[in-house]
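Open question from group meeting: does this chain pack into something compact, or does most of it stay loose? Before anyone orders reagents, we agreed to write out a predicted structure and look at it together. Recording both the input and the output here so the notebook holds the full record.
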Amino acid sequence: MRVGYITYRTLDIFRNTTIVVLFSFVIISGFAEVISRYVLLKSLGWTEEILRYLNVWIILLGASIAVKRNAHLSVNFFLRFFRPEQSRRITQGVNIAILIFLAIFIFLGTKKTIRNIDQQILAFPISIAWFYLAIPVGSLLMFIDYLLLFIYEKHPFYKLERK
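Structure tokens returned:
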């Protein structure tokens, strides 16, 4: 479990750091665009497209953190009408459905990323595949966290980080 924790913690630090860096860039670029547009009366031109793509990365990476913290919306109202064992089975069934959905997302997102490697965004000579990559990467991170929830019923590393 210790090696798994170190590997997961490294992945988690990378995910958190990436979110902070991307979000900082979004804020600074957005501020620069506002200043440029309303003070200098000239738009930068590249910010709208780049910020849109970076927001997708931030959202998908953040969604995987929400899985770890059990912070996604869920409907637990009906579970209280079942015995604990039945409630656990229903929750596991929901987790299996989510894992299947995420596996499809990983597959189709990877396919879309590969298909668009040669296409560039309008603002810079950067492949749009870097931005489509957010779909399989974010889905894979969520898949890992949901798989841990499915196996252990509670995220095994979340409590270790809170101590």
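Observations to bring back to the group:
Residues 2-162 form one domain.
The mean pLDDT is 88.
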